[in-house]
Amino acid sequence: MVIPDVVEKELREGSEKYHTLRCVLDADWIETVPIDTPPQWESFVHYERRLVGSDGRNIGECGVLALAENLPGAVAVVDDRVAVEATRGRPVRVRRTLGLLCDAIRAGLLTVPLVSALADDLIRGDYRLPFQVGGFAEWCVREGIFDL
């Protein structure tokens, strides 16, 4: 798995407050890739114009989308609705976190209770999901994802 250098920077800054982010930075299966070629930079600027406001938020999403757009076979994992919409008409594939977690359940790598607990933790940390705490399994059934 690769992450752009701008995401690594965000993780480093965030790890001062959220120490668990160190695990991501220390993972040997994650490689940091700089946004440093002209095509990557052009893509980054395209997304930056659409996603970054005066508060400087969404730089990481810009990097993820620019990298995925320029690496053959890459898939961007982003959840921000506006970021996903910014990819329309662009040569980039996008997946959302919930989709990946559901795929992992189908593949037998994760369980519904484990993903439900993870989703609850994310929601408690101000992560936006289409259900409330405790609602993952019900959401899966309602959306036709699993027949539990």
**Main β sheet profile:** 2 strands, parallel
Dominant shape: globular
Give the H and E element order: EHHEHHEHEHHH
Order of strands, main sheet, comes to 1-2
Share of β-strand residues: 5-15%
What Rg, in angstroms, do the CA atoms define?
A: 16 Å
The total count of strands amounts to 4
Number of helices, counting only DSSP H or I runs of 4 residues or more: 8
Class by helix and strand content? mainly alpha
Describe what this molecule looks like in 3D.
By secondary structure, the protein is mostly helical. Helices cover 53% and strands 8% of the residues. The chain has eight helices and four strands, in the order βααβααβαβααα. Strands 1-2 form a two-stranded parallel ribbon. Strands 3-4 form a two-stranded parallel sheet. Helix 5 links the parallel strand 3 and strand 4. Helix 1 packs antiparallel against helix 4. The longest helix is centred in the first third of the chain and has 14 residues. It is globular and about 50 Å long. The two termini are 31 Å apart. The model has no long low-confidence stretch (mean pLDDT 92).
Provide the fold topology.
Layout: E1 2-4, H1 5-15, H2 21-26, E2 31-33, H3 38-51, H4 59-70, E3 75-77, H5 81-86, E4 93-95, H6 97-106, H7 112-124, H8 136-142
Parallel strand pairs: 1-2, 3-4
